[in-house]
Amino acid sequence: MTRTDVTFPSSETTCAAWLYTPDSGSPSSPAPIIVMAHGLGGVKEERLDAFAERFAAAGYASLVFDYRYFGASGGEPRQLLDIASQRADWRAAVAYARSLPTVDPDRVVVWGTSFGGGHSIVTAAEDKRIAAAISQCPFTDGLASSTATAPWVSAKVAVRAVRDVVGARLGMAPVMIPTYGPPGSTALMTSPDAVSGVEALMPPGADIAKGAAARIALQIALAFPGRKAKDVECPIFFAICEQDTVAPAEPTQRYAAQAPRGEIKLYDTGHFDIYVGEWFERNVADQIDFLTRHVPPS
């Protein structure tokens, strides 16, 4: 396995990515590739390498990218989280993956987690050439996620979001909001496990910005990517955490059941637990089983 730093164009800027290539990949024996991206304000260093390494060991290439405005990718202003822009980055990443000489362009898999799990559903629904999809602890229902937050917290977040929208129209710098915080704080994720969960994903000593332009809170409440599950024609694997207080499991299960070739795996744990430890081991093994059945690496 080799990991290479690459970039690819997306709109007016570039996205940074890691390209994982299994030893078996070559122009004469192209490998399937898994296009991967993180959740709300997440970057590739937050445990996506752990998944990509396992996939490479199983014979899959992976393209693990940061959204524009985040991590090593370009774009200004920094930390601007915008649904339309992120979905455009997914399309650009898939196009770049298909252009690689060591990749089979007809065996592209999309893999998204949390907020990115919703993007992977939408990407697979809209691009009928996608071979398979994985949606891990996915954000599928903005109303359900919003109502899972205490009303006074939602009110404080909404005030900051409106300030950001008004300021943007006046040409001002973004009004920022933390992507996570303790219960009752003014942040996008304030579940009891948010602080410990997010920080468990960060490499030791990492300095990763954990804020976003507050306007995203207004987009979240009106986003329902799960509704696209019924339009996904390829096999799609849903890894759903039954104790999820960030992306509630009940609506996700309803949406996942509508996918014509959907496979659902339930994990009796919280939103952040399937990235690490024993739950990670179970989860990644299930994902590799799904991949080898539907998009074998040979």
UniProtKB/TrEMBL annotation:
The keyword Transport does not apply. The keyword Transferase does not apply. One of its GO terms (molecular function) is hydrolase activity. InterPro entries: AB_hydrolase_fold, FrsA_esterase, Hydrolase_4. This is Alpha/beta hydrolase. Belongs to the AB hydrolase superfamily. It comes from Skermania pinensis. Keywords: Hydrolase. It holds the Pfam family Hydrolase_4. PANTHER family: DIENELACTONE HYDROLASE DOMAIN-CONTAINING PROTEIN-RELATED (PTHR22946), POLYKETIDE TRANSFERASE AF380 (PTHR22946:SF9). Residues 29-270 form the Serine aminopeptidase S33 domain.
